[in-house]
Structures are given as C-alpha cells and as structure tokens.
Amino acid sequence: MKNQLVLVLDFGGQYKELIASRVRQLSVYSEIKAGSTSAEEIKALAPIGLILTGGPKSVYAPDAPHCDPKIFELGIPVLGICYGMQLMSYTLGGKVGPSAGGGEYGRIRTRLTPDCPLFDGVPDKGMTLMSHGDRVTQLPEGFVCKASTARCKIAAGVCEERKLYCVQFHPEVRHTDHGTDILRNFLYKLCGAKGDYNIDDYLEWAVENIREKVGDKKVLLALSGGVDSSVCAALIERAAPGSLTCVFVDHGLMRKNEGDQVEAAFADRQLKLIRVNAGERFLAKLKGVSDPEKKRKIIGAEFVAVFQEQSAKLGKIPYLAQGTIYPDIVESGGGSTATIKSHHNVGGLPKDIGFDGLIEPLRGLFKDEVRALGRKLGLPDTLVERQPFPGPGLAVRVLGEVTEEKLAILREADAIACEEIGKMKNPPSQYFAVLPGVRSVGVAGDERRYDEVIAIRAVETTDFMTAEYSPLSHALLSRISSRISNEVPGAGRIVYDISGKPPATVEWE
Ligand code: XMP
C-alpha cells in the first residue's frame, strides 16, 4: 500500500487486531506481523512506527516469544504494550519480575507524568486497563519512568532519544481513559503520521490481494445475506468478476420471509446464486437437542454437509471465501481467548473440505469497518445497515429444543417486534424476539390459556463485544405486547430483557 504504515508486532496478545483497527480508525494504515519478524524485513517495509502487543507469556519462559533486538536500533519509534513493554525492557537490559502480591487485572487508578509526549493532553490521573502478572522492575538505561499505579511502580517508560516508549496498560481498549488520545499522540506526535489512510485504501488493497490470489480461478462463498458475507461477495465480485458462485443454505431457521428476501437482494447482481432449501434436514438433526453448544455444533456440521454436497455438484472450485470478521474469531476462542460461543462461520467451514485456499478478506475488520467497506462497494443501505443475525439463526433464539411450532410463533412475534421498533427515529443497534421455551398461564375471554412467553431484546452497541439494553419507551413496549398477544396464536406473555453484555450476551444462547 502507498500509505504510511504502522506495524503491529504480535506476541500472542488477544488485542492485536484491536490495536491494528484502532490505528486504522486514527487514519493510519496498520498491519499485523509476527513478533519474530527480522529488523531487516521491517526496515524494508519502511514503517513509520512499531507497536509491540501484549501476550500471555513471561519473558523468562522457555517458549516466550522474543523479537529481533535490532528493531530497537532502526530509529523507528516503538510503542511496547503490556508484554511488549516487558519485552522491550528485558531485551534492552532492564529487569522484569512477577508483581508483588499478584498481578493487576481490570481498571486500575493510574498516575501519568504530564511532561511525557505520549500523554500530551491526557489528565495526569485516570483509570487504565491492566492485565498482567509480571511487571518491569527496572527500566533499561536511558529510560525514564512516566506512569505508576499502587502496585506497579513502573507503568510506563520512555527513552526519547531512541524514540522508545512503553506502557504496562492497554491504551487500545475503551476501558482505558484517553487510550485513543495516547495512541494518537504516539502516531501523530512521535511517528510523524500524516493521517493518509481511509477505507478506500483498504478497498483498493483488498481488491488487489484477491485479484492476485484468485487470478481467473473460481471461488465459492457461503452467502447468508448478512452484512459480512454480502460485503465479502461484493468485494470478490469487484476483484475478480465472474469468478464467484454463492451458495445460500436456507436452514429453515431464518426469520419471516428472510430466505426470499436474501434471494431477491442478489437476484440482479452478476454473481451466480444457488439457494438450497434444507430446513427439514436441520430440524431433523435438532430433534430432542436442547444444549446450546450442541445445537450450534449440529447446525455447523449440517451446514458443512449441505455445503459440501453443493460444492461437489459444482465440480472442483479451488477457493472458498468466508465473510469472517474479527469479533467472530475472538468470541470463538481464536488464539488464546476462551470460547464464549462457537460462532457459526468460524466453526462452520473447515479448510480441509477440499479447497486449495481460503479467502477471508474481512478477517481483520470490525463491524463498522465492514459497513464502511460495503457502502464503498455500492451495496444498498438496507443491506449494509442490516443487523447481525447469527449463523445458527432462530435456533439460538428458540431456547431448548427447536420445533416447527415454536419457530412459527417466534417468526410472527419477531416480525411484529421488528416492525414496531424499526419505526423509531434512531432504532437500537440490534433488536429481535426470543422464545425462552417457558409457558405461562393467562386468560383470554373466559378461557384459560397456557402459552409461550416471548422476550423482546433490543441493545445499543458499536462493536457487539459489549452492549447495553436499549431504553425502549413504555408506549412502544405496550404496542409490541398488545400486538403480539392479539396477533400471534400461542404467544401469551411478553417480557422485556434489560440485561447488558457483559454479563449477558446479546443472544440468549
Ligand atoms: P453474542 O450473543 O455473542 O452476540 O453477544 C454478539 C453478536 O454476534 C451475533 N452472533 C453471531 N453471529 N454467528 C454469527 O455470525 C453466530 O454464531 C453468532 N452468535 C451471535 C449476535 O447476533 C450479536 O450481534
């Protein structure tokens, strides 16, 4: 890419993509490279700055990842974060040791030294996100300590002469006050960034990359009609026109009329779209299963089976494309993080199902970046602004065993909730209905009823990694409640979910 470049050197930290994304949001192009990349290779790429990520190891562990010590002699500004700080200090002759009284985890009150260019314009006291067992006990020669906490006396270090900077806390997460300002200072005050990157450049770069990889070969994509797979399809179509075949597996777990809508949305595009109606197969496999992870795994496996059959029918197609985005990888336990839910598109299509290569052009992007890319690609707003819908579909919104009857009730209730909430001037980020699988007693006319409970969920979020429940008005909730109980046979009681994420997740399963 022609833009200025900041390299994020990866030492196994769970926030590496987040760091790269934050840098890009600050209009500076960034890429992730292995922590072991040699100084020579780095020099050849001519980055304006390097950021060393955190990581789970201790620098003294036999298998701890190290960096080429010569990277500190390139004259390129370096920012070490968490393990990156410890590694920088250790490599340059400082000392690292276990934190006295255990590590620091969570938001910690931190005192910053005001005369440090990294903290320019940042209040000298604030909360930072700490997550470390070890800490730097002695900075290398030439470094000055620039921050501290009660337990971590050296929480930041600077050697201005050599343009080396390090922080024990994580400026890339929202939980650190003014974290973005700290990164901005590093980029603009210390690395000389011009802010010459925007999503057009990413588009150009991704198109080039796909073109180079695919050439005139064929690509197969599992299209769900959601933002991610749609943007992925449009991107491949732009890069290699005529190469793409999309398979839309309708697993019978879609919302009301959704299958037809997806088909219609892509009907006038150049790409070849095959719709497979496989609802009966999925429901048969889900019969009697109520464990959420088992349901997800079954749906993932069945999805692979259907997809494989289609792919075999189409003959040999060398490339498989997927619209995997970064939060899918984190929440599915990618790298060192814990599995929260097995997200469908990551667990769904293994590489070894007969393809020569995998194309995942959105892998490093967050939802807002994917949407921006979709707009640039000329996708309609209705598609780009679409709320996320989980790969396993309504199966994770019908709690417990999934049956055709429960699905039918949920579809109708969901359509009403979406119609009413969708009329808001600024609708929430995501909203839908859930069928918790609990029946409750009611009365209609003089008759006793024993019907399903329907829960309404509406959340505000930007990254879908954390969320708050949306404060819908009582008038709106009353309208939804009244319509669902009057118009949907089998739905007897309506409740509103007021949980945030964490501790709840957006979906109920
Ligand atoms: P959770 O429930 O994990 O959801 O807080 C976060 C966001 O991800 C969506 N979601 C999924 N998306 N495959 C997907 O592509 C999945 O298996 C999946 N599960 C949840 C969810 O709707 C929310 O927007």
Give the tags.
Rossmann fold, binds xanthosine-5'-monophosphate, globular, 3 domains, nine-stranded mixed sheet, five-stranded parallel sheet, GMP Synthetase, Chain A, domain 3
Can you offer a commentary on this structure?
The structure is a single chain. The chain has 509 residues and is of the alpha/beta class. The chain contains 15 helices and 21 strands. A hairpin with a 4-residue loop joins β10 and β11 (164-167). The longest helix has 23 residues, at 292-314. Mean pLDDT is 91; it is low at 333-337. Residues 331, 341, 343-345, 388, 390-392, 430, 464, 501, 505-507 line the site of xanthosine-5'-monophosphate.
In a few lines, what is going on in this structure?
This protein is α/β, with parallel strands linked by helices and 509 residues long.
Q: Which segments are poorly predicted (pLDDT under 50) over 5 or more consecutive residues?
A: 333-337
Fourth CATH level, the homologous superfamily of the largest domain: Class I glutamine amidotransferase (GATase) domain
What is the approximate shape?
Answer: globular
The CATH class of the largest domain, by name, is: Alpha Beta
Number of separate helices: 15
- Number of separate domains: 3
Mean pLDDT: 91
Please give the share of residues in helix.
25-40%
Structural class based on helices, strands and sheet pairing: alpha/beta
CATH topology heading of the largest domain: Rossmann fold
Strand content: 15-25%
